[in-house]
Design goal:
heterodimer; A: about 100 residues; mainly alpha; about 90% helix; elongated; B: mainly alpha
């Protein structure tokens, strides 16, 4: 259960980090219109979509009831690891982007 | 599955040839010199994906016309002195500009040889920026 909440928290944090990254990317796209700047905005947008889907997915599993509780509990640590790794990666990317 | 794996593994002996052909496929510079596509990507990242990238591009453009110190750059581009110092540090750390004396207040900044050699790649970005 804790891992599940942790994974959801990491996904929400990822959306915040991506918002910060996206702000810089959009500012640059307005100044430099190229395949590169457009591509960065597209990639960041898709990552935001990914994390929103993860949050929806986990909220659905959370409310699914005891029928699949064992599966959810077994999968939660892995999703927590995946989302946490992404949080660390996005944190570094935001730091580089704002430097 | 096995065919896919053997196909991927079969690429390894040819890897040096593939890398060489990829690097050799880069554009040729205006002076006929070889433009490094890896350096071009670094330029795009430093200018196109970071906060203040456009100001960094303007600083490189100015230093190309005439080497200058931070104070001259700040006044010519009407930028804050501390902002210019920050950008010069980032550009210097990434090997795009170099100075004769980093500690000196009036240290003059120049383009590094690799930046000069790959200047046409930078001009490509400047064209996109235009007069903004």
């Amino acid at each position: 259960m804790d891992f599940m909440l942790g994974a959801a928290a990491a996904a929400i944090l990822n959306i915040g980090l991506l918002g910060g990254i996206m702000a810089t990317y959009v500012q640059n796209l307005r100044l430099i219109k190229s395949y590169f700047t457009f591509g960065l905005v597209l990639v960041a947008s898709l990552f935001i979509v990914q994390n929103i889907v993860i949050v929806i997915f986990w909220s659905n599993l959370y409310t699914a009831g005891p029928a699949i509780q064992n599966i959810v509990d077994a999968a939660a640590p892995y999703l927590f690891a995946i989302n946490s790794a992404q949080t660390a990666g996005l944190g570094v990317l935001l730091w580089i982007t704002r430097k | 599955m096995f065919e896919f794996l053997s196909g991927v593994l079969g690429l390894f002996p040819r890897l040096p040839t593939i890398v060489t052909s990829v690097l050799a496929s880069g554009d040729q510079g205006g002076s006929g010199g070889y433009l490094d596509p890896r350096f071009r990507r670094i330029l795009w990242y430093l200018i196109g994906s970071t906060k203040g990238g456009v100001n960094r591009a303007k600083i490189i453009d100015l230093i190309n016309t005439h080497p200058a110190n931070a104070n001259q750059i700040a006044s010519e581009l009407t930028l804050d002195y501390k902002t210019v110092i920050h950008h010069l540090r980032v550009l210097s750390e990434n090997g795009l500009v170099i100075t004769d004396n980093k500690e000196s207040y009036g240290a003059t900044y120049f383009l590094t040889p690799i930046m000069e050699k790959n200047y046409p790649s930078f001009k490509e970005i400047m064209v996109r920026i235009g007069k903004k």
